[in-house]
């Protein structure tokens, strides 16, 4: 990789000189290759992918900007994104990570609850983005149930059909989609700003003990959808949940709805990573269907 063009873009965006000492490859990302560009005084975090993925980086930068503007949970600030030769690139502030503890976990729970108090009048967002590398539509909708049905579950089911996952998944999935209203008896979600892809791999703690979230798939939706994903692959502590609940209580129906929300991510995993997720998706649909009339 010739880093000179990206160094110049950083200098143009920041208006400051940047002398690159070392470009270090970082492990951990599922989708992109990631680097730390270490300078004399400052370092930058850079993601690279094929040039045609630039819109994905533009959406990520917009999400980070929206999250940062809430002054709730810390996020890396976007510096610049663009295309250089065959690569799309996204440059962010580089954050040194530290170790979480009870205090930082509690702070994270409180701050996430405050993030979720940032609301707008409708579900969706001002632009589409991606979840992993899968397109994620965010068309404006005043009706959350219809939003979840059409833009989340049915969208992923259609992608799955196009990849050849037909049969029981499609039939039972469509039947479930017709019954969604049954999960929302007496519960009226508000359009909260969500991280959108909040698993343990997209959260950390900085050296000062501040929680940090990154790699978002933002939109305005039911805050339970973010909470559900924190439980999907483990990784969030009891202190985190206790502090979240103290700041913003959680409706009792969440226990059932969280599976409905995580079904979206399991369908996305099926579409991204293949048939290993098919039986999990079918089992979730079957279990959800048995829980409502
Ligand atoms: P991908 O989009 O490929 O999934 P991530 O955004 O998850 O990539 O980043 C990959 C890894 O890089 C993360 O797991 C995290 O450890 C680290 N990382 C992400 N953002 C930053 C940042 N701004 N500063 C330092 N390290 C970061």
Give a brief rundown of this model:
This protein folds into 2 domains: 3-93, 2-Layer Sandwich (Phosphorylase Kinase, domain 1), CATH 3.30.200.20; 102-290, Alpha-Beta Complex (Aminoglycoside 3'-phosphotransferase, Chain: A, domain 2), CATH 3.90.1200. The chain is 42% helix and 18% strand. The protein has helices spanning 4-14, 54-68, 102-116, 144-162, 168-177, 223-232, 238-247, 254-273, 278-291; strands spanning 20-26, 33-39, 43-50, 78-84, 87-93, 129-131, 134-136, 192-194, 203-205, 211-213, 219-221.
Layout of helices and strands, plus pairs?
Layout: H1 4-14, E1 20-26, E2 33-39, E3 43-50, H2 54-68, E4 78-84, E5 87-93, H3 102-116, E6 129-131, E7 134-136, H4 144-162, H5 168-177, E8 192-194, E9 203-205, E10 211-213, E11 219-221, H6 223-232, H7 238-247, H8 254-273, H9 278-291
Antiparallel strand pairs: 1-2, 2-3, 3-5, 4-5, 6-7, 8-11, 9-10
The structure holds adenosine-5'-diphosphate.
Adenosine-5'-diphosphate binds at residues 26, 28-32, 34, 45, 47, 76, 92-95, 201-202, 214-215.
Write down the domain tally: 2
Using DSSP, what is the number of strands? 11
Order of helices and strands: HEEEHEEHEEHHEEEEHHHH
Q: Give the second-level CATH assignment, the architecture of the largest domain.
A: Alpha-Beta Complex
> Given the structure, what is the number of helices?
9
Low-confidence stretches are none
**Rg to the nearest angstrom?**
20 Å
Output the CATH homologous superfamily of the largest domain: Aminoglycoside phosphotransferase (APH), C-terminal lobe
Report how far the terminal alpha carbons are from each other. Answer: 57 Å
């Amino acid at each position: 990789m010739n880093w000179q063009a990206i160094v110049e873009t950083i200098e143009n965006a920041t208006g400051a000189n940047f002398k690159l000492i070392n470009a270090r490859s970082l492990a951990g990302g599922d989708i992109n290759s990631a680097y730390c560009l270490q300078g004399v005084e400052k370092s930058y975090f850079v993601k690279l992918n094929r040039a045609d993925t630039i819109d994905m980086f533009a959406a990520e930068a917009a999400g980070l900007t929206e999250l940062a503007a809430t002054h709730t949970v810390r996020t890396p600030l976007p510096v610049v994104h663009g295309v250089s030769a065959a690569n799309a690139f996204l440059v962010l502030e580089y954050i040194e990570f530290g170790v979480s503890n009870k205090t930082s976990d509690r702070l994270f729970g409180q701050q996430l609850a405050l993030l979720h108090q940032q609301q707008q009048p409708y579900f969706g967002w001002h632009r589409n983005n991606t979840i992993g590398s899968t397109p994620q539509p965010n068309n404006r909708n005043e009706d959350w149930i219809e939003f979840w049905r059409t833009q989340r579950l049915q969208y992923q089911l259609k992608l799955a059909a196009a990849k050849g996952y037909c049969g029981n998944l499609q039939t039972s999935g469509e039947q479930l989609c017709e019954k969604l209203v049954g999960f929302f008896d007496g519960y009226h979600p508000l359009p909260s700003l969500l991280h959108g892809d909040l698993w343990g791999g997209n959260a950390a703690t900085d050296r000062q003990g501040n929680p940090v979230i990154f790699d978002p798939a933002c939109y305005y939706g039911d805050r339970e959808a973010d909470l559900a994903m924190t439980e999907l692959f483990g990784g969030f502590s009891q202190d985190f949940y206790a502090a979240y609940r103290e700041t913003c209580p959680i409706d009792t129906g969440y226990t059932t709805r969280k599976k409905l929300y995580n079904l979206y991510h399991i369908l996305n995993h099926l579409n991204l990573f293949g048939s290993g997720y098919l039986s999990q998706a079918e089992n979730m649909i079957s279990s959800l269907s048995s829980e409502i009339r």
